[in-house]
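Batch job 17 of 40 flagged for manual review because the log was empty.
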Amino acid sequence: MTDLKATATTGDPRRMALENWLARVLGAAPQLEPASSDASFRRYFRLNGPAGESLIAMDAPPAQENTPQFLAVAELMRAAGVHVPAVHAAVPGEGFALLEDLGTRTYLDAIDGDNAEGLVADALAALVRWQGATRPGALPPYDEAVLHRELALFPDWYAGRHLARRFTPAQRRDWDAVCAALVDAALSQPQVYVHRDFILRNLMASDPSPGVIDFQDALVGPIAYDVLTLFRDAFHRFEQDFIERGVSHYLALARAANLPVPSSDANFRRWFDLIGVQRHLKVTGIFARLAHRDGKPKYLAEIPRFLGYLRETAPRYAETEALVPLLDALEGGH
């Protein structure tokens, strides 16, 4: 009788290589169970260690993923007092790592009307520790080139590929002006460590809470960025009054920690909103790319949330109000 598991593994050379490496590390052949995957090329497996403890094996193909950066950021976050998975073993050049298991419950799984305030307060406390640990030169900058490259995902993948529409010359001029203003606004903020995807499903309801994952793309960038990603989540919508209270709580923590936030809450809210427009445009493009390039159509269902965020925010500011007629034209097909 054919061994279906063996056949499946044979057709997956990276998994075979991972299992061989783990057998050398652990002294016994592991039994791997899929733990999770994400929007990148990384995937994770759960296994039992020699003492019966649950562990996570990470497979991050070197051609697409930067495992040395993952390990470096993990160390920076750990030194900042943020709970990230301990690294038990790794071969960065092969893209394999054996990690602490932070459990199966993300904040997205756990959050409800009763615990939201407490979970978010814990997340903000961790974020302030992370921002407060910023040191020059430790991470690359979230610079003009990166910001523009992210913004280009919207016309290339959402408008161009998903909607099959190209900007008119007038729309292109408006778009270029909006992008220039958003990049200037991002670079004018104080620059601190940014996780870049500080969302509920990258926060684990662990002990201590939160456990933070998916941090390998961290940079030094706008101080409002991670606050924005938490409250304008990709997969969960918070009510506006909750966001207002949460941002006020963050500012109180940040000021107590002597972080470079403005004395005016209104000024911070402007930073929050404008970096939000940049991120929402980027994510809309990324989700379209995930669907059309990477064969992950489920992400298309999340795009309307980001278009909604854009429609709420863009009209408030002269720098971004031109996005409203552009969205109208794209969605209306004219």
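Reviewer: the log was empty due to a logging misconfiguration, but the result itself is present. The chain is about 50% helix and 10% strand. Unflagging and moving on to job 18.
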